[in-house]
């Protein structure tokens, strides 16, 4: 889902193929909200680890010039 905020589109669901296309074009960043252990066991290449229980604190540090894809 994409993050809402200043200059952000409302959150919406996108398909895996849309996600892959955005990531491959450098138009999006994947944000992995799973636990650090799950992230360490495997994640989308280039994904940022932002566990759901820390997401509110980490949101200001996430890129604001790309679509954020949370999984």
Q: What is the third-level CATH name, the topology?
A: Oxidized Rhodanese, domain 1
Contiguous runs where pLDDT drops below 50 for at least 5 residues: none
Shape: globular
- Kindly report the spatial arrangement of strands forming the biggest sheet: 2-1-3
Mean pLDDT: 90
Q: How many E-type strands?
A: 3
Rounded to the nearest angstrom, the distance between the terminal CA atoms is 7 Å
CATH architecture: 3-Layer(aba) Sandwich
The CATH superfamily bears the name: Rhodanese-like domain
Largest sheet: 3 strands, parallel
Per DSSP, what share of the residues sits in E-state strands of 2 or more residues?
Answer: 15-25%
Q: How large is the radius of gyration?
A: 12 Å
Describe the structure concisely.
The chain is built from three helices and three strands; from the N terminus they run αβαβαβ.
Characterization of the model:
- This protein is α/β, with parallel strands linked by helices and 71 residues long.
- Helix content is 27%, strand content 15%.
- It is built from three helices and three strands, in the order H-E-H-E-H-E.
- The protein has a three-stranded parallel beta sheet with strand order 2-1-3, with helices on one face.
- Helix 2 (36-41) links the parallel strand 1 and strand 2.
- 8% of the residues are buried.
